[in-house]
Write a structure and sequence with these properties.
mainly alpha; Growth Hormone, Chain: A; 18 helices
Length: 420
């Protein structure tokens, strides 16, 4: 982590600091606000279910639109234009959320906001090949995750003080939420400006391909992935285990609210998750150097399976704090190592299209998990069973990683400091 970043690399990392503020709000304060809006109309089970359905719809839309958007963005000069458009959708939607007080409209605006946010990350991740040299991509990528965790705490603490102290400030909770969401939108925008100003697209395709050709490019990417057996099986494994990880992140606060835990302490606990994730992400990055990354990922997956079982029987605030700390210990590590390991087993000359495909697997992953939790909770009437179902995703991901470990390494070798 001692690499001295260039100005463009710093700008790229800073966008993670900006958008992560919305990520933290999305997993903490926003579901609590939604609960206050929908409290009189929805039961606790329905509240958790509809929240999960909205998350699932958003991720499906990203999965459908992301590949096409990514293919079109490969044309000369298109990436920054498309990035600016989806960024605007996300930022404006974030601010608008604070002015909505009807639960169904709130969910609709939230889906649109999440769409802009997630699509901006599809383009953001693909920019890494333009902003950083191959030998520094792993470090720059890890720093994005790490600084995103800790940087997002700054506006979050400001918003938390504003919301919890709204009576002292002489404003209502609704007003405090409105101001908070506007603050997050402004923070997001400010930290996006350096990237908007510095980014230059150096890798692109020539010509003015039609939309049909964009889809043909996607089909070609999928064929290329299937020809790389180790990378292809890893992508499938990644889809399952990261699905479970993202679902836990997505629904932690909603679940805590649904089982009646104190709102203030929920927010403090999830702030602890961010603080713990910062050093642990860096530690996993260093631990992965020269070690078997597949085994480290398996350790993380087993840890998440245990976390899920623990969450299904959790019923008090102390247990939620333990859960928050455990999630923070493994959250950044499993994300950072997945990205760095994938970069080792793919053809380096096709890294753009392969990472584009991985990004879709990651961003679209939480659909299955959130849908499982929502559907099983409603059908059985038990939120604990809904949460417990996520263990299936971790088991499948773990078994597929066992398969990955037995597939021979590609003959090419491009060292990023880890072995399979």
């Amino acid at each position: 982590m001692s690499l001295k970043l260039t100005g463009t690399e710093r700008s790229w990392v800073l966008y993670d600091v900006g958008n992560s503020a919305f990520t933290l709000m999305l997993s903490t304060i926003i579901p609590i606000y939604f609960n206050s809006i929908a409290g009189e109309d929805l039961s606790s089970v329905d509240y958790l279910a509809y929240w999960g359905y909205a998350a699932s719809i958003a991720t499906v839309l990203v999965a459908l639109m992301g590949p096409f958007l990514g293919a079109v963005s490969d044309r000369r000069g298109m990436k920054i234009r498309l990035f600016s458009c989806v960024l605007a959708v996300g930022v404006i939607g974030c601010a608008v959320l604070g002015f909505v007080n009807e639960w169904l409209v709130f969910l609709i605006v939230l889906v649109i906001t999440r769409l802009g946010y997630s699509l901006s990350l599809v383009l953001y991740d693909s920019m890494l090949v333009d902003v950083s040299a191959p030998h520094s991509m792993h470090t720059v990528s890890a720093l994005g995750y790490a600084w995103g965790y800790i940087g997002s705490c700054v506006p979050f603490v400001i918003c938390l003080v504003l919301i919890l102290g709204c009576d002292s400030f002489g404003i209502t909770m609704g007003t405090a939420m409105t101001v908070s969401l506007v603050i997050i939108a402004a923070w997001w925008t400010v930290f996006a400006v350096p990237l908007l100003r510095r980014y230059r697209q150096t890798h692109h395709v020539e010509g003015r391909e039609s939309s049909l050709n964009a889809f043909r490019m996607l089909a070609s990417t999928v064929r290329n992935a299937r020809s790389e057996k180790k990378a292809f099986v890893f992508l499938i494994a990644f889809f399952f285990f990261i699905d479970g990880v993202y679902t836990i992140i997505e629904m932690a606060t909603a679940y805590g609210e649904a089982i009646g835990l104190d709102t203030t302490m929920l927010l403090v606990a999830l702030l602890v998750t961010q603080v713990v994730a910062f050093p642990c992400t860096i530690a996993f990055g260093r631990l992965a150097r020269g070690r078997n990354v597949i085994r480290l990922l398996m350790v993380c997956i087993l840890a998440y399976a245990c976390i899920t079982i623990y969450a299904s029987v959790m019923d008090n605030m102390t247990q939620f704090f333990v859960l928050a700390i455990c999630v923070g210990m493994f959250q950044g590590g499993i994300q950072a190592m997945s990205r760095s390991y994938f970069s080792r087993i793919i053809p380096p000359e096709k890294s753009g299209e392969f990472f584009g495909l991985m990004d879709i697997f990651g961003k679209g992953a939480s659909f299955m998990g959130t849908f499982m939790v929502s559907a099983i909770s409603q059908v059985t009437g038990s939120m604990s069973l809904g949460i417990l179902s996520l263990v299936i995703l971790f088991i499948v991901g773990f078994l597929l990683l066992v398969v990955v470990s037995r597939i021979p390494e590609p003959e090419r070798c491009h060292d990023i400091g880890s072995s399979a």
